[in-house]
Specification:
The protein is built from five helices and 13 strands. By secondary structure, the chain is of the alpha+beta class. It folds into two domains: about 170 residues, no CATH class; about 160 residues, no CATH class. The strands form five sheets. Strands 4-5-6-7 form a four-stranded antiparallel β-sheet, covered by helices on one side. Strands 10-13-12 form a three-stranded antiparallel β-sheet, with no helix packed on it. The chain has a two-stranded parallel ribbon with strand order 1-11. Strand 6 and strand 7 form a beta hairpin. Bound molecules: zinc ion (ZN). Zinc ion binds next to loops.
Protein backbone atom coordinates (compact mmCIF):
# COMPACT_ATOMS: atom_id res chain seq x y z
CA UNK A 1 0.00 0.00 0.00
CA UNK A 2 2.93 2.33 -0.77
CA UNK A 3 3.75 2.83 2.80
CA UNK A 4 0.34 4.09 3.60
CA UNK A 5 -0.66 2.70 6.81
CA UNK A 6 -3.67 0.57 6.15
CA UNK A 7 -5.44 0.82 9.37
CA UNK A 8 -8.79 -0.66 9.91
CA UNK A 9 -10.58 1.15 12.65
CA UNK A 10 -13.16 -1.23 13.82
CA UNK A 11 -16.17 -0.63 15.84
CA UNK A 12 -19.32 -2.33 16.73
CA UNK A 13 -21.95 0.06 15.62
CA UNK A 14 -25.22 -1.62 15.65
CA UNK A 15 -27.34 0.87 13.96
CA UNK A 16 -30.94 0.57 13.24
CA UNK A 17 -32.83 2.67 10.83
CA UNK A 18 -36.38 1.87 11.22
CA UNK A 19 -38.64 4.10 9.33
CA UNK A 20 -42.30 3.84 8.95
CA UNK A 21 -42.71 6.72 6.62
CA UNK A 22 -45.58 5.08 4.95
CA UNK A 23 -48.76 6.22 6.44
CA UNK A 24 -49.72 3.56 8.87
CA UNK A 25 -53.02 2.94 7.38
CA UNK A 26 -56.00 1.80 9.22
CA UNK A 27 -57.75 -1.38 8.35
CA UNK A 28 -59.24 0.64 5.58
CA UNK A 29 -56.31 0.70 3.27
CA UNK A 30 -57.71 1.50 -0.11
CA UNK A 31 -57.21 -1.27 -2.56
CA UNK A 32 -58.40 0.46 -5.66
CA UNK A 33 -60.87 -2.26 -6.54
CA UNK A 34 -63.76 -1.31 -8.66
CA UNK A 35 -66.90 -2.05 -6.66
CA UNK A 36 -68.25 1.16 -5.26
CA UNK A 37 -69.67 1.36 -1.76
CA UNK A 38 -73.29 2.26 -1.36
CA UNK A 39 -74.06 5.87 -0.56
CA UNK A 40 -77.78 5.17 -0.13
CA UNK A 41 -78.70 5.58 3.55
CA UNK A 42 -81.51 3.07 3.10
CA UNK A 43 -78.98 0.36 2.28
CA UNK A 44 -77.54 0.70 5.76
CA UNK A 45 -80.71 -0.31 7.53
CA UNK A 46 -80.62 -4.06 6.76
CA UNK A 47 -76.84 -4.06 7.25
CA UNK A 48 -77.22 -2.58 10.71
CA UNK A 49 -79.79 -5.25 11.45
CA UNK A 50 -77.28 -7.93 10.56
CA UNK A 51 -74.55 -6.28 12.57
CA UNK A 52 -76.86 -6.37 15.55
CA UNK A 53 -77.39 -10.08 14.99
CA UNK A 54 -73.65 -10.56 14.81
CA UNK A 55 -73.05 -8.70 18.05
CA UNK A 56 -75.68 -10.88 19.74
CA UNK A 57 -74.02 -14.01 18.36
CA UNK A 58 -70.61 -12.88 19.57
CA UNK A 59 -72.07 -12.27 23.00
CA UNK A 60 -73.50 -15.77 23.11
CA UNK A 61 -70.26 -17.24 21.82
CA UNK A 62 -68.31 -15.55 24.60
CA UNK A 63 -70.69 -16.88 27.22
CA UNK A 64 -69.96 -20.40 26.03
CA UNK A 65 -66.20 -19.90 25.66
CA UNK A 66 -65.18 -18.30 28.96
CA UNK A 67 -65.20 -14.82 27.50
CA UNK A 68 -63.06 -15.68 24.52
CA UNK A 69 -63.82 -14.06 21.19
CA UNK A 70 -64.21 -16.15 18.04
CA UNK A 71 -61.10 -16.48 15.93
CA UNK A 72 -63.08 -15.38 12.89
CA UNK A 73 -66.69 -14.57 12.08
CA UNK A 74 -67.22 -17.89 10.32
CA UNK A 75 -66.75 -19.57 13.71
CA UNK A 76 -70.17 -18.17 14.67
CA UNK A 77 -71.90 -20.43 12.17
CA UNK A 78 -73.90 -22.56 12.49
CA UNK A 79 -74.23 -22.62 16.29
CA UNK A 80 -74.66 -18.90 16.89
CA UNK A 81 -75.66 -17.70 13.43
CA UNK A 82 -77.72 -20.31 11.67
CA UNK A 83 -77.95 -18.53 8.35
CA UNK A 84 -74.47 -17.90 6.90
CA UNK A 85 -75.89 -15.12 4.74
CA UNK A 86 -75.95 -12.97 7.86
CA UNK A 87 -72.18 -12.67 7.44
CA UNK A 88 -72.63 -10.99 4.07
CA UNK A 89 -73.80 -7.40 3.86
CA UNK A 90 -77.28 -7.23 2.22
CA UNK A 91 -75.96 -4.63 -0.17
CA UNK A 92 -73.28 -7.09 -1.28
CA UNK A 93 -75.86 -9.83 -1.65
CA UNK A 94 -78.01 -7.56 -3.81
CA UNK A 95 -75.04 -7.08 -6.11
CA UNK A 96 -74.43 -10.76 -6.71
CA UNK A 97 -73.00 -11.92 -3.39
CA UNK A 98 -69.48 -12.89 -2.47
CA UNK A 99 -68.74 -14.48 -5.84
CA UNK A 100 -68.82 -11.19 -7.66
CA UNK A 101 -68.01 -8.95 -4.74
CA UNK A 102 -64.75 -7.05 -4.68
CA UNK A 103 -63.33 -5.95 -1.38
CA UNK A 104 -63.15 -2.21 -0.97
CA UNK A 105 -60.28 -2.33 1.45
CA UNK A 106 -57.43 -4.54 2.52
CA UNK A 107 -58.46 -6.81 5.36
CA UNK A 108 -56.54 -7.59 8.50
CA UNK A 109 -57.39 -11.22 7.91
CA UNK A 110 -59.31 -12.79 5.09
CA UNK A 111 -62.54 -14.58 5.81
CA UNK A 112 -63.85 -16.15 2.64
CA UNK A 113 -67.32 -16.53 4.14
CA UNK A 114 -67.96 -12.93 5.06
CA UNK A 115 -67.99 -9.49 3.50
CA UNK A 116 -67.57 -7.95 6.93
CA UNK A 117 -64.19 -7.07 8.30
CA UNK A 118 -63.57 -8.76 11.61
CA UNK A 119 -61.06 -6.72 13.55
CA UNK A 120 -60.32 -9.22 16.30
CA UNK A 121 -59.13 -12.14 14.19
CA UNK A 122 -56.75 -14.56 15.80
CA UNK A 123 -54.39 -14.29 12.85
CA UNK A 124 -50.80 -13.27 13.52
CA UNK A 125 -49.72 -9.74 12.80
CA UNK A 126 -47.17 -9.52 10.03
CA UNK A 127 -43.54 -8.94 10.93
CA UNK A 128 -43.70 -5.55 9.29
CA UNK A 129 -45.81 -4.23 12.13
CA UNK A 130 -44.54 -6.25 15.07
CA UNK A 131 -40.92 -7.28 15.38
CA UNK A 132 -40.91 -8.50 18.95
CA UNK A 133 -41.37 -11.84 20.60
CA UNK A 134 -43.66 -13.53 21.18
CA UNK A 135 -45.65 -12.85 18.04
CA UNK A 136 -48.85 -10.89 18.37
CA UNK A 137 -52.26 -11.48 16.89
CA UNK A 138 -54.75 -8.90 15.71
CA UNK A 139 -57.01 -10.00 18.51
CA UNK A 140 -54.33 -9.20 21.10
CA UNK A 141 -53.64 -5.85 19.49
CA UNK A 142 -57.27 -4.81 19.29
CA UNK A 143 -57.89 -5.98 22.85
CA UNK A 144 -55.02 -3.77 23.94
CA UNK A 145 -56.51 -0.88 22.02
CA UNK A 146 -59.86 -1.54 23.68
CA UNK A 147 -58.15 -1.28 27.06
CA UNK A 148 -56.66 2.03 26.04
CA UNK A 149 -59.57 3.66 24.24
CA UNK A 150 -62.60 1.85 25.57
CA UNK A 151 -65.32 -0.14 23.92
CA UNK A 152 -65.71 2.21 20.96
CA UNK A 153 -63.12 0.13 19.16
CA UNK A 154 -64.87 -1.59 16.23
CA UNK A 155 -65.08 -5.33 16.28
CA UNK A 156 -66.77 -5.61 12.88
CA UNK A 157 -66.74 -3.10 10.05
CA UNK A 158 -68.67 -2.89 6.81
CA UNK A 159 -66.75 -1.00 4.16
CA UNK A 160 -69.49 -1.39 1.57
CA UNK A 161 -71.16 1.83 2.62
CA UNK A 162 -70.02 5.37 2.50
CA UNK A 163 -69.63 6.36 5.29
CA UNK A 164 -68.58 3.03 6.77
CA UNK A 165 -70.53 1.17 9.42
CA UNK A 166 -68.69 0.15 12.57
CA UNK A 167 -69.97 -2.29 15.14
CA UNK A 168 -68.26 -1.27 18.38
CA UNK A 169 -67.08 -3.79 20.94
CA UNK A 170 -69.58 -2.21 23.30
CA UNK A 171 -72.47 -2.92 20.93
CA UNK A 172 -73.45 0.41 19.32
CA UNK A 173 -73.11 0.87 15.58
CA UNK A 174 -71.63 4.12 14.37
CA UNK A 175 -70.61 5.61 11.07
CA UNK A 176 -67.16 6.83 10.21
CA UNK A 177 -64.81 7.59 7.39
CA UNK A 178 -62.04 5.24 6.44
CA UNK A 179 -60.31 5.86 9.76
CA UNK A 180 -62.80 5.30 12.57
CA UNK A 181 -60.21 6.63 15.01
CA UNK A 182 -60.85 10.15 13.82
CA UNK A 183 -64.39 10.04 15.25
CA UNK A 184 -62.76 10.07 18.66
CA UNK A 185 -59.99 12.54 17.99
CA UNK A 186 -57.43 9.76 17.71
CA UNK A 187 -54.86 9.04 15.10
CA UNK A 188 -55.12 5.92 12.98
CA UNK A 189 -51.35 5.82 12.80
CA UNK A 190 -51.23 5.31 16.53
CA UNK A 191 -53.73 2.48 16.64
CA UNK A 192 -51.98 0.61 13.85
CA UNK A 193 -48.49 1.05 15.23
CA UNK A 194 -47.96 -1.97 17.37
CA UNK A 195 -44.99 -0.52 19.13
CA UNK A 196 -47.46 1.97 20.60
CA UNK A 197 -49.80 -0.77 21.74
CA UNK A 198 -47.08 -2.95 23.24
CA UNK A 199 -44.36 -0.58 24.33
CA UNK A 200 -41.30 -2.08 25.84
CA UNK A 201 -41.27 -1.32 29.58
CA UNK A 202 -37.57 -0.76 29.69
CA UNK A 203 -36.18 2.73 29.75
CA UNK A 204 -32.91 3.19 27.97
CA UNK A 205 -32.67 6.88 28.68
CA UNK A 206 -30.00 7.79 31.10
CA UNK A 207 -27.77 4.82 30.40
CA UNK A 208 -24.19 5.72 31.15
CA UNK A 209 -20.80 4.12 30.72
CA UNK A 210 -21.25 2.26 33.99
CA UNK A 211 -24.16 0.35 32.47
CA UNK A 212 -21.94 -1.40 29.95
CA UNK A 213 -19.25 -4.01 30.44
CA UNK A 214 -15.82 -2.42 30.89
CA UNK A 215 -13.58 -2.25 27.90
CA UNK A 216 -10.87 -4.86 27.75
CA UNK A 217 -7.68 -3.05 28.80
CA UNK A 218 -5.84 -4.99 26.10
CA UNK A 219 -8.16 -3.73 23.39
CA UNK A 220 -6.06 -2.13 20.65
CA UNK A 221 -6.85 1.46 19.67
CA UNK A 222 -8.09 0.25 16.29
CA UNK A 223 -11.14 -0.99 18.12
CA UNK A 224 -12.92 2.28 18.67
CA UNK A 225 -14.12 2.85 22.18
CA UNK A 226 -17.82 3.65 21.86
CA UNK A 227 -18.61 3.38 25.55
CA UNK A 228 -19.66 7.01 25.80
CA UNK A 229 -21.89 6.70 22.74
CA UNK A 230 -23.81 3.53 23.47
CA UNK A 231 -27.47 4.27 24.10
CA UNK A 232 -28.71 0.70 24.56
CA UNK A 233 -27.40 -2.45 26.14
CA UNK A 234 -27.29 -5.72 24.27
CA UNK A 235 -30.08 -6.91 26.54
CA UNK A 236 -32.34 -3.99 25.65
CA UNK A 237 -35.13 -4.70 23.23
CA UNK A 238 -34.39 -4.05 19.64
CA UNK A 239 -36.06 -0.77 18.75
CA UNK A 240 -38.34 -1.20 21.73
CA UNK A 241 -39.94 -4.47 20.64
CA UNK A 242 -39.92 -6.72 23.68
CA UNK A 243 -38.30 -10.12 23.38
CA UNK A 244 -36.14 -9.07 20.47
CA UNK A 245 -32.63 -8.23 21.58
CA UNK A 246 -28.95 -9.00 21.15
CA UNK A 247 -28.47 -10.59 24.55
CA UNK A 248 -27.11 -13.79 23.04
CA UNK A 249 -24.35 -11.96 21.22
CA UNK A 250 -20.98 -12.84 22.77
CA UNK A 251 -19.39 -9.80 24.36
CA UNK A 252 -15.83 -8.58 24.57
CA UNK A 253 -13.36 -8.62 21.74
CA UNK A 254 -14.88 -10.85 19.11
CA UNK A 255 -14.15 -11.65 15.54
CA UNK A 256 -16.92 -11.56 12.97
CA UNK A 257 -16.22 -12.34 9.37
CA UNK A 258 -12.52 -12.12 10.05
CA UNK A 259 -12.71 -8.66 11.63
CA UNK A 260 -12.30 -7.88 15.30
CA UNK A 261 -14.98 -5.92 17.13
CA UNK A 262 -15.34 -4.63 20.63
CA UNK A 263 -18.81 -5.92 21.51
CA UNK A 264 -20.27 -4.28 24.58
CA UNK A 265 -23.15 -2.03 23.66
CA UNK A 266 -25.39 -0.71 20.96
CA UNK A 267 -26.01 2.60 19.29
CA UNK A 268 -29.60 2.58 18.19
CA UNK A 269 -31.00 5.19 15.87
CA UNK A 270 -34.61 5.95 15.41
CA UNK A 271 -37.14 5.89 12.64
CA UNK A 272 -40.37 7.84 12.64
CA UNK A 273 -42.44 5.61 14.89
CA UNK A 274 -40.40 4.07 17.60
CA UNK A 275 -41.56 3.25 21.08
CA UNK A 276 -38.09 4.02 22.35
CA UNK A 277 -37.12 7.47 21.25
CA UNK A 278 -33.63 6.97 20.01
CA UNK A 279 -31.82 9.84 18.31
CA UNK A 280 -31.79 10.49 14.61
CA UNK A 281 -28.03 10.78 14.64
CA UNK A 282 -25.03 10.48 16.87
CA UNK A 283 -22.37 13.04 16.12
CA UNK A 284 -18.65 13.29 16.54
CA UNK A 285 -17.79 9.75 17.40
CA UNK A 286 -14.04 10.06 17.76
CA UNK A 287 -11.58 8.10 15.69
CA UNK A 288 -8.39 10.18 16.13
CA UNK A 289 -6.19 8.02 13.99
CA UNK A 290 -5.42 7.53 10.36
CA UNK A 291 -7.39 4.82 8.70
CA UNK A 292 -8.64 3.73 5.35
CA UNK A 293 -11.95 2.35 6.43
CA UNK A 294 -14.18 1.65 9.35
CA UNK A 295 -15.74 -1.72 9.87
CA UNK A 296 -19.04 -1.76 11.63
CA UNK A 297 -22.00 -4.04 12.01
CA UNK A 298 -25.04 -1.98 11.08
CA UNK A 299 -28.34 -3.65 11.55
CA UNK A 300 -31.53 -2.44 10.00
CA UNK A 301 -34.69 -3.01 11.96
CA UNK A 302 -36.66 -3.90 8.89
CA UNK A 303 -36.78 -3.18 5.24
CA UNK A 304 -39.28 -0.93 3.58
CA UNK A 305 -40.30 -1.26 -0.03
CA UNK A 306 -38.54 1.11 -2.40
CA UNK A 307 -38.54 4.06 -2.72
CA UNK A 308 -39.11 4.52 1.02
CA UNK A 309 -36.33 2.16 1.97
CA UNK A 310 -33.89 3.64 4.40
CA UNK A 311 -31.03 2.45 6.44
CA UNK A 312 -28.11 3.93 8.24
CA UNK A 313 -25.29 5.94 6.88
CA UNK A 314 -22.09 7.34 8.19
CA UNK A 315 -20.80 10.77 7.46
CA UNK A 316 -17.09 11.06 7.67
CA UNK A 317 -15.20 14.30 7.92
CA UNK A 318 -12.15 13.46 5.92
CA UNK A 319 -11.16 11.79 2.71
CA UNK A 320 -9.68 8.36 2.29
CA UNK A 321 -6.25 7.85 3.86
CA UNK A 322 -6.46 11.22 5.59
CA UNK A 323 -6.62 11.78 9.25
CA UNK A 324 -9.98 10.67 10.46
CA UNK A 325 -11.00 12.71 13.51
CA UNK A 326 -14.58 11.63 13.90
CA UNK A 327 -17.70 10.48 12.18
CA UNK A 328 -21.43 10.75 12.50
CA UNK A 329 -23.86 7.89 12.35
CA UNK A 330 -27.29 8.90 11.19
CA UNK A 331 -30.43 7.77 9.47
CA UNK A 332 -30.36 8.54 5.78
CA UNK A 333 -31.85 7.15 2.58
CA UNK A 334 -30.01 4.30 0.97
CA UNK A 335 -30.76 1.89 -1.80
CA UNK A 336 -29.35 -1.05 0.07
CA UNK A 337 -31.13 -3.86 1.77
CA UNK A 338 -29.88 -5.27 5.05
CA UNK A 339 -26.33 -4.24 5.68
CA UNK A 340 -23.70 -6.20 7.45
CA UNK A 341 -20.09 -5.63 8.22
CA UNK A 342 -20.18 -2.52 6.13
CA UNK A 343 -17.03 -0.60 5.54
CA UNK A 344 -16.61 3.08 4.91
ZN1 LIG B 1 -73.07 -3.37 4.92
Amino acid sequence: MNGVRYLAARALLTLAAWLLLTECRSLAQESGLSAAPSIDPAEKVPCKRQLNRITGAIREYRKDHEGRLPDRLADLTPDYIHDPRVLVCPYVRSRGGLRTWKRQTAELSVDAYSSYHYEFAQDPVDAYRWRGLPKKTWQEAKARLENMWGDVVPIVRCHDHDPRLNLAVGGPIYESGRNWEENFGKRAEFSMTFANLFPSPEATEGLGPKDFPPRDPCAPPQLLDLTAYYNAALTNSWQGFGGNDLASLPTGIRKFDGVQFDVRGVIQLRGTQLPAMYPWRVDDIPVRQKCARIFSTPRVGFILPAPLRRATRYITRTARFRRFPSFTACTLPTGGRGLSNRTL
